[in-house]
Amino acid sequence: MRKILQALMSILAIAALLLAAPSRADNQYKILVFAMPGKYHYEYIPIARDSLEKLGKLHSFEVVYTHRPEMFDGDLKQYATIVFLNTPGEELSEARRKKFEDYMRSGGNAMLVHRSLIIAPNTWPWFEKLIGRRVGNHPMLQTGVAYVVDKKFPATFGIPERWIWSDEWYIFDNPHDIAIHPVLNVDESTYDPTKIWPGQTTQGMGRDHPVAWYHTLEGSQQGGRVFVTALGHNGEMYRDPQYLAHLLGGIYWTATGKGIAP
């Protein structure tokens, strides 16, 4: 009887492995999502994790979600793209920054979301160049209208041409003279760009005010794709189907290089 039970257990174990194998093989690629809690950005973490993991299951890619910088000590080449989700690069040590730079130069890709765009000037100039712009004054959250400037890019496919959205409409400058391809701008006539925190003053950016863009890292080998979106302040945004479609388009393009319409 014991031998029969042992044989049965062995058969069940083999069957479990065979059934599990196809689900692993179905994943097209793997992404790393780096999301650390901060003073003003923490409530989004469980919401974003749940939503991104659901997107991964729906579209057959694996999501490795972490708040631990130690993940950058491992093999980064396994990831088709690395997403900095409301987490700036200055959270990485010098050694981990070097590893990430090497990853990007050797063909890696990156996506940067909202708070990850804010890094103290000259803290890590390479990361500023990776972003492609530098955040200046920090506006208060307001409802405004973003509009599509590149209908051919995947991060715009799931949103309307004029999109009512509430966010912190970051103001940018370009100290490193980086060329970017804007995909979304914000119409400054639809909100008050001077409504910022006490002690600051600004006049906005005018007609050319990008809030999402892409570019390719100079000197990278067969990759170096970078997608940036300044949107994503509120945790509830990570449940919004249109915003998630925006993120999915960025993930899809950075991970595969595909999706831009001819």
UniProtKB/TrEMBL annotation:
The reply to whether Signal figures as a keyword in the UniProt entry is yes
Q: Does the keyword Nucleotide-binding apply?
A: no
Under InterPro entries, the record lists: Class_I_gatase-like, ThuA-like
* Source organism of this protein record: Duganella phyllosphaerae
Q: Where is the ThuA-like domain?
A: 30-254
> Keyword set for this entry?
Signal
Q: Which Pfam families match?
A: ThuA
Task: Extract the signal peptide range.
Answer: 1-25
Gene3D superfamilies, per the entry: 3.40.50.880
Record protein name field: Trehalose utilization
